[in-house]
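Dear Dr. H.,

I hope your travels went smoothly. While you were away I took the liberty of generating a structure for the chain from your last submission, since the lab meeting agenda had it listed for discussion. I wanted you to have the full record in hand beforehand rather than looking at slides cold. The sequence, exactly as received, is reproduced here:
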Amino acid sequence: MQVLTKRYPKNCLLTVMDRYLAVVHNMEQVVMIPSLLRDMQLSAHGSQAQAGSSDLYSYFTMLKAIRMDVEHGLLPWQEWQAKVAGGKANGVETEAGETEEPEEERVSGQLDLEAQLHLHFASLHHILTHLTLKAEEVTRRYQEKTGQAM
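The corresponding predicted structure, in token form, is as follows:
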């Protein structure tokens, strides 16, 4: 597993991001044949697996894609929207809707920027921690399947 070289406080967002990147990098190094993850549920116990839940291969590809966003940054909003929507028609509608923001929402949004930052920061911290645990689980389950369990 890749060792963290930078030292930040425990609850620092950079620490969480570095840990996520290291765990996903380790997952990519361990999982040599990703297709083995197909039809394997995240939960080790069959009774806990939910019907219609994603298999480990879906988690593997999602975690890699998120790693790319964390390392290289996000696409600009319009490019991302066009990619998701499959065209520019939806992008034009959304841009027009965004410019019609009510005055009171804009003022209240400016007044509590610190609260919004704290909320988003805490949410990002939680999500990255959760995704790190998922990456560790994918790696562990792959190692169990291939007999490489540590």
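Two observations you may find useful: The chain has six helices and no strands. Residues 81 and 91 are 6 Å apart (CA to CA).

With kind regards,
E. W.
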